[in-house]
């Protein structure tokens, strides 16, 4: 677009250029143009003698001229209504879940808004609850959908806030250690990390664990051999099938699988080639005292037969006169304390074959020296005698002949005085 005067000056220009000349009247005017609003490109003042209007995307320019007038028409593309999105209405509903759902159709825009957004104070918010390693003070676990959620420090928990930052602080883990006082050795002091227990010097450690806790048991390594009493003397012969009941003090844990009772044994021989046999049955029981009754906690028995042809063949070692152990298989694990051991043997000699003899056997039990004789005790009570009790209550000979281990023995069934006590003071050896 250029701008000129309608009148055209025909006078020739003079030579002076510092004044307006006729050709200046006829020249195009310089115009300034500025655009604003929804624009693109340069928007500042545009200076030119000819400004051109140009149609852009979807815009058409057309010009019409007439006498003393001109018209520029700006035309945009015709808009076609979208049948699926022609609605102008709006509606909203409350929905479950956490997602916002929108639908645009002929009825307009419809939005589904979760309940926790519409119910919270101020028209918004989020549901908050706790879980994991947590407890409830009685109100139970439920979503907090309105109001203000307050964090509170529990036992040994401290909360601190600095502006929008919240710190949750737990105490530093405690330590464990050993002091130098008392019966101790090694390095004293404490540690805050792992602390390991080690069993030494006869101490046995045992641990059991589950998902929530652990249990450490401190025990004692067992003795695998024990002799009681630790001195001996040849005592008297005990009756066949008679149970001797020895009172025994176990100073440490004792684990064993057999009990040996020591006997001085001799067996007769024959100068002829005759054959004989010795059959031996053995019973042993370990008892604890409950009131006035002995109760069995472990027991065992065995039977063995030895045969030999005089002193020339077979088990000729049977005829050797010596102190010999007679064993009973008894599995036990005894803690320190006082126990009673009942030991009983029954022997039979016999002849075998045509040229036979029945060898004579002598068994004398080995006893502790301190009770080779039988001390008695009389209590300070009416009717007490020197033979009513012994100093080791529950120790003596079982009053009845038996070929088994009685599960219980009452005091009234034990002969405790006179020679009964010394015959019960038998030497025992426990072996693993």
Instruction: Report strand %.
Output: 35-45%
Multimeric state: single chain
Distance between the termini: 125 Å
* Shape summary: rod-shaped
Overall mean confidence score, pLDDT:
79
How large is the count of helical segments?
A: 3
User: Poorly predicted ranges (pLDDT <50, ≥5 residues)?
Assistant: none
Computed over alpha carbons, the radius of gyration is 59 Å
Count of distinct strands: 27
In which range does the helix fraction lie?
Answer: under 10%
The H-and-E topology, N to C, reads as HEEEEEEEHEEEEEEEEEEEEEEEEEEEHE
Name the structural class.
mainly beta
Biggest β-sheet description: 8 strands, antiparallel
Summarize the structure in words.
The chain is mainly β and 432 residues long. The chain has helices spanning 22-26, 115-119, 419-424; strands at 31-33, 46-48, 59-66, 69-76, 90-95, 101-105, 108-114, 158-162, 165-169, 176-178, 189-191, 203-209, 214-220, 225-228, 233-234, 244-250, 254-267, 275-290, 293-309, 313-314, 322-334, 337-351, 361-367, 396-398, 408-410, 414-415, 428-431. Strands 16, 18, 19, 20, 22, 24, 25 and 26 form an 8-stranded antiparallel beta sheet that branches. Strand 12 (203-209) and strand 13 form a beta hairpin. The longest helix is centred in the last third of the chain and has 6 residues, at 419-424. 17% of the residues are buried.
């Amino acid at each position: 677009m250029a701008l000129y005067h309608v009148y055209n000056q025909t006078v020739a220009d003079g030579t002076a250029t510092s004044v307006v000349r006729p050709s200046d009247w006829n020249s195009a005017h310089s115009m300034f143009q500025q655009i604003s609003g929804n624009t693109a490109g340069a928007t500042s003042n545009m200076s030119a003698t000819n400004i051109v209007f140009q149609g852009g995307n979807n815009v058409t320019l057309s010009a019409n001229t007439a006498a003393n007038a001109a018209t520029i028409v700006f035309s945009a593309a015709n808009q076609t209504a979208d049948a699926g999105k022609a609605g102008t209405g709006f509606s909203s509903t409350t929905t479950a879940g956490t997602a916002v759902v929108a639908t645009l159709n002929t009825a307009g825009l419809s939005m589904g808004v979760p309940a926790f957004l519409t119910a919270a104070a101020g028209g918004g918010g989020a549901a908050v609850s706790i879980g994991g390693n947590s407890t409830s003070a009685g109100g139970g676990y439920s979503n907090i959908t309105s109001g203000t959620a307050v964090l509170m420090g529990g036992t040994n928990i401290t909360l601190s806030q600095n502006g929008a930052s919240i710190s949750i602080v737990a105490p530093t883990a405690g330590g464990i250690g050993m002091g130098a006082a008392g019966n101790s050795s090694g390095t004293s002091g404490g540690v805050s990390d792992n602390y390991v227990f080690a069993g030494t010097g006869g101490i046995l450690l045992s641990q059991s664990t589950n998902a929530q806790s652990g249990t450490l048991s401190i025990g004692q390594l067992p003795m695998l051999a024990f002799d009681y009493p630790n001195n001996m003397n040849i005592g008297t012969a005990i009756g066949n099938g008679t149970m001797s009941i020895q009172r025994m003090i176990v100073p440490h844990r004792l684990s064993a699988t057999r009990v040996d009772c020591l006997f001085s044994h001799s067996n007769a021989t024959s100068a002829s080639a005759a054959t004989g046999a010795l059959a031996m049955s053995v019973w042993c029981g370990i008892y604890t005292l409950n009131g006035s009754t002995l109760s069995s906690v472990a027991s065992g028995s065995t039977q063995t037969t030895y045969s030999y042809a005089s002193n020339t063949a077979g088990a000729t070692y049977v005829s050797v006169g010596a102190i010999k152990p007679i064993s009973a298989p008894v599995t036990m694990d005894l803690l320190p304390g006082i126990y009673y051991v009942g030991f009983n043997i029954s022997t039979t000699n016999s002849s075998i074959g045509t040229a036979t003899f029945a060898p004579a056997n002598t068994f004398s039990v080995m006893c502790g020296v301190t009770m080779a004789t039988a001390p008695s005790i009389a209590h300070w009570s009416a009717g007490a005698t020197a033979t009513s009790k012994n100093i080791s209550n529950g120790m003596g000979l079982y009053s009845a002949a038996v070929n088994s281990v009685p599960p219980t023995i009452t005091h009234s069934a034990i002969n405790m005085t006179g020679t009964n006590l010394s015959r019960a003071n038998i030497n025992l050896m426990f072996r693993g």
